[in-house]
Amino acid sequence: MATLVKLYSQLEQIKEQYFIRNRIAEEHRKRENQAAVKIQSWFRGCQVRGYLSHLHKNATSIQKIWRGFIARKLFRHRLKAAYFIMKIHFYKKMAVKIQKRWRGYYVRKYIHNYYARKRYLEGLTRKNNQIRRDLEEFAELQRRERERITLEKEEREKNIQAQRLHFLLSTKQCPGVYNSPFKTEPDEMELRLRRVKPRSAPKERKTPKIPPDLFNLTPNRDRLPPIHQKPQGPFRSSLEVQQQRYRPLEPSLRVATSITALEEAREELRRQEWRTRVIDQPFLPFLNASPKKRYEGLMHTSTPFEQVGYGIKHFREEQKEDLQGKKPFKTVFTTCHIFDKFGRLYSNAGNIV
User: What is the pLDDT of residue 313?
Assistant: First the structure.
């Protein structure tokens, strides 16, 4: 009973403590909840990561075993293929050796006789040596013949020269050019002039007189060619001179072509393009790029045939009314005033008037 009375006396204090503790618990409930969630997430993360690590280890072990099995299988397959290829090469090499031995034996025994071949080559060598000696003798004979012909030609030319210069032969009264009194012996040309005879004048050939009637009856008779085909001296043939004098006209490109050839060619090109043209409207690029802005074509593309003049009709044309009141164009170099006065102070020959 005393305890109950004591509790009733402390009832207000208990209520106050209850409300204080309840308030404190409400104040810390959110933070404690976040802490609990954080602890649970960390624990669950550790648990899941451990499980995933376990799965990865198992998967790695399975992959390692499977890849090892596949690699060993592939290695055995490649080893068998390499061994088979090596055996094939070895068998081919042995077959080549057997074929080589057999073919050599067969050729030596049934096709080519070694000793007969040796006798043939020895005979061929002896024949070649004989032919070589004969060719050397023949070449020596040809060389001697050429030398003899050259000496005869030189001797003949010297004799002809001596016949032409026979008037230089020495006489008892006057020594010749080749017989100098200051020499102990006469020159070789002097001895040659003494041996040869002087050159006589050519005799006139007597042409047979043909009667006029017989000559007229044979107008197409072949006549003998003239003795001298070309006249003596630095003259050209009459046919060459005649061809040069009456050669055909060779006009230049400017003379051969018409003065209006360019305009005619352009007109023909226009007509040909007009005949082969499919549509008459010129192509306008970027037509749908900006619907509000109209396309302005270039000057050399707005016409279908050729470029128009730059600015005005002719490129070099000047509009005098636009140039009034403006300064003339200044050149970099000044003009030479001497040539500006040509014809007024100087004559055509350049002398002062």
Answer: 53
The rounded distance, in Å, linking the Cα atoms of 335 and 329 is 13
At 39, the amino acid letter reads I
Cβ neighbourhood burial of 208 (10 Å; 0-12, 13-18, 19+): exposed
Which three-class secondary structure state does DSSP give residue 51?
Answer: helix
Query: Rounded to 5 degrees, what are φ and ψ at 283?
Result: -75, 130
Beta strands of 80-136 (E only): which ranges?
Answer: none
Local structure of 346: helix, strand or coil: strand
Between 155 and 225, where is the model more confident?
155
SS3 at position 187:
coil
Query: Rounded to whole angstroms, how far apart are CA atoms 283 and 297?
Result: 10
Amino acid 44 reads R
Single pTM value for the model: 0.28
DSSP 311-329: SSSSTT---HHHHTTSPPP
User: What does 69-116 look like in DSSP terms, one character per residue?
Assistant: HHHHHHHHHHHHHHHHHHHHHHHHHHHHHHHHHHHHHHIIIII--HHH
Cα 169 from chain centroid (whole Å): 71
